[in-house]
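In response to the reviewer comment on reproducibility (Comment 2.3), we provide here a single inverse folding case reported in full, input and output, so that an independent group could reproduce the run without further information from us. The structure tokens appear first.
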């Protein structure tokens, strides 16, 4: 299923998560500070990292920033209930999703699987998908690559999936519910700003249309639309 890296200073909690995930078929390694977590994440041995935000010395957001400087490894944040600012900053720094503590090991495992399914690409019964082209945007679904005007886009796994959903619906609004279900692998939760933050990051990474507008537009009450140029 892929190797999971747990980065959390709460030894008791990581032991609980590790035992459950290993019983569920994952291979898991746990480290307990940001420096060790960064070093492990950059070894390319892991399919995903689970990263706690509130760690002493080097906190989770700084750890995330350092990992993202050199790696596109999928990262799931663990945040405290009510820590909206940390969640938004983490998503802006490139986290793929977050789980609010306290959470059950079962919920954590389900969220890990959702991210890994997105990261590993489409199921085998959908192989042979053609490339998607929308204006100067080109997406190669099977290779999980995207480019704007021939220049490779550096996207997280979540950003890639959201962009692919928008490209398939280019020219018409795509609802946040659909984006959450197909891009995040879960229903849209009430007051969830995850989609908005990811699309704000995408808007910065994508190029502009000939008239200077962003190719990714917000459509009031309907969702988001990728403009056909």
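Designed residues, in position order:
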């Amino acid at each position: 299923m892929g190797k999971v890296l747990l980065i959390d200073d709460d030894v008791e909690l990581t032991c609980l998560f590790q035992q459950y995930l290993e019983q569920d078929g994952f291979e898991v390694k746990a480290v307990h500070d940001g420096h060790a977590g960064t070093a492990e994440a950059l070894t390319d041995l892991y399919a995903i990292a689970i990263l706690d935000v509130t760690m002493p010395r080097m906190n989770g957001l700084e750890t995330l920033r350092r990992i993202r400087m050199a790696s596109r490894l999928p990262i799931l944040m663990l945040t405290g209930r009510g820590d909206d600012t940390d969640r938004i900053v983490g998503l802006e720094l490139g986290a793929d999703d977050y789980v609010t503590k306290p959470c059950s090991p079962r919920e954590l495992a389900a969220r890990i699987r959702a991210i890994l399914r997105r990261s590993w690409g489409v199921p085998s019964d959908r192989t042979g998908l053609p490339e998607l082209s929308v204006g100067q945007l080109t997406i190669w679904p099977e290779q999980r690559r995207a480019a704007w005007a021939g220049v490779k886009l550096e996207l997280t796994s979540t950003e890639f999936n959201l962009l692919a959903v928008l490209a398939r619906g280019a020219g018409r609004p795509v609802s946040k519910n659909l984006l959450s279900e197909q891009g995040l692998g879960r229903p849209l939760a009430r007051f969830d700003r995850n989609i908005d933050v990811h699309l704000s990051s995408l808007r910065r990474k994508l190029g502009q249309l000939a008239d200077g507008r962003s190719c990714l537009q917000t459509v009031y009450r309907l969702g988001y639309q990728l403009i056909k140029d």
